[in-house]
Amino acid sequence: MITAMDKKLSKNEKISRAMTGRKLSPEHRERLSLVKIGTVRTIETRAKIKETLLGENKKHLKKVHPLIPKTSKSRSHLTAIDVKNIRNRYSNEKGASIRKLAEDYNVSRHTIHSIVTYKTWK
Questions:
Q1: What are the boundaries of the region Disordered (predicted)?
Q2: How far is CA 8 from CA 19, 20, 64, in A?
């Protein structure tokens, strides 16, 4: 039964609504991932994906980050200012992803993830 609300939806939105809750076969998932390789996404799209992936964890991200002093025995490639900038960029910039920040600061993605989630540089 088509409701008045369904008439306002676009074709893609109707298909998306109809497919909600269905499980994809492993072969189908593999084909979808192969199709999307090399896809360039806009900053807005990446921001939406980031927001979706964060989900409930988004409320734990701080907007203002304190400056953590670096110890004299630290072997880190990053300074306290770098860490503060990483956290600010990740939580406040639309297009900032863990991968992009790792490239900018020449460290691994795991390092950036640990900094953003406060596992390191507490």
A1: 1-27
A2: 18, 18, 41
